[in-house]
Design brief:
Length: about 400
């Protein structure tokens, strides 16, 4: 939105303009008077020079126009030193994570919280270090390589002044301050908590759902139909807090294997979420294999393709997967010798971890709990969760 345009012309662009006009801005230039923690942090989030290739920034995989998720028409982002390495997970939206917590198990032993699809990062700052050092992403060989790139930035002095970097700093101190800055950007930029969707306007009494949207909301909340709200919380909080449409839990959905993921050409490779391969501390918890973080559904219409493995291309098909996974498995899974290979993105021994709660759990050939009309209505409702980036952010609580 316009506000973010003015924020974005902060440190990096301003110094670039000075250089282009003969201003001679370098890493030793005096601090730009207009620099703020937000302007410096936003410049770092968009800084491609922090990658080994010089072609990838945090913003490359978390784009403004797509709710800070993968860019439009992107299957899975390419990265690495030569920008030819494909990851095996989609880039989830970074929005609406302000109240998320470090990973933990609740009183019932259920996993909650954490950042990334497998919750291995306990904060936004910790999450930011992953892509910087991942060989398939920004591909820096070590912390020293990252620190060297930061020191070479034309707005390094702004970084030093705005984030209290020691005058004589170690590579680790530079790296830690960089992670802090990337977290600060997500905390200070209002785009990450807009709360100005049609859903929010309806909650405030400033708009009205269409008939289809109202039907979709009822199906979303119904325990005997969509049952979506059991994981994607839709109720206003006790103090009027707007719902985030996630409870930050985990689930094994039994998604179909995506043949377009390069790693999946190896029949022995499986991405099993909480129990590996990226996360290693829970590798012996085989009961957790196949579980991935429940994402927010806010702005879900902007974040195709869907799920951690980008296996479903459209929102109506994502809803359709819930409606027909068990009653028509041949729609989603391949067949070998006439046998449908259900839950084929998990090893056979872990397929029992897949959830069968409503709307799942029906026998093949039975009537769906969600008809084609129900599915269309659900999609209509989900589209009301899209924020308006060209409008002012809404309040954190309903009607205030």
């Amino acid at each position: 939105m316009i506000l973010n345009f003015f924020k974005s012309i902060g440190t990096g662009l301003l110094i670039g303009l000075l250089t282009a006009c003969g201003g001679g801005a370098t890493s030793s230039a005096s601090t730009t008077p207009t620099a703020t923690p937000l302007s410096v942090a936003q410049a770092l989030f968009a800084e491609k020079a922090l990658s080994a290739s010089g072609q990838q920034a945090c913003a490359s995989c978390h784009t403004d126009d797509n709710a800070h998720a993968d860019a439009t028409a992107t299957l899975l982002p390419l990265g690495g030193v030569s920008m030819d390495q494909q990851g095996f997970r989609s880039s989830p939206s970074l929005m609406y994570l302000a109240s998320n917590t470090a990973f933990r198990f609740d009183a019932n032993g259920l996993p909650l919280g954490g950042f990334t699809w497998d919750g291995r990062a306990n904060s936004r700052a910790e999450q930011a270090s992953g892509p910087l050092l991942d060989s398939a992403e920004m591909a820096n060989i070590d912390i020293a390589a990252v620190a060297k790139k930061v020191r070479a930035l034309p707005y390094f002095n702004d970084f030093v002044s705005q984030f209290n970097v020691p005058t004589v700093s170690t590579d680790q101190q530079i790296f830690d301050k960089l992670r802090t800055a990337l977290q600060t950007y997500q905390q200070l930029d209002t785009d990450y908590l807009l709360f100005n969707s049609k859903f929010d306007k309806v909650a405030d009494g400033a708009a009205t759902f269409t008939a289809a949207e109202q039907r979709g909301l009822a199906i979303f909340n119904s325990p005997s139909q969509g049952n979506c709200a059991s994981c994607h919380t839709s109720r206003v909080g006790p103090a009027g807090e707007r719902p985030l449409f996630t409870n930050f839990s985990y689930a094994a959905l039994g998604l179909p294997r995506n043949p377009l993921i390069q790693k999946n050409t190896d029949p022995a490779f499986f991405d099993m979420g909480l129990c590996g391969p990226k996360r290693t501390d829970l590798s012996t918890r085989t009961d957790l294999c196949g579980q991935f973080k429940v994402p927010t559904l806010r702005n879900i219409a902007l974040t195709a393709p869907y799920f951690h493995n980008a296996s479903v291309n459209t929102l109506i098909d994502a809803v359709g997967f819930y409606a027909t996974r068990d009653i028509d498995p041949g729609r989603w899974y391949p067949s070998v010798n006439g046998q449908v290979q259900k839950f084929n993105d998990l090893p056979l021994s872990y397929r029992g971890n897949v959830i069968s709660t409503t709307p799942f759990g029906q026998q093949p050939g039975t009537a769906p709990l969600l008809s084609a009309q129900n599915t269309a209505d659900l999609v209509s409702f989900l589209q009301t969760l899209t924020d308006d980036r060209n409008a002012a952010p809404g309040s954190l609580t309903v009607g205030r």
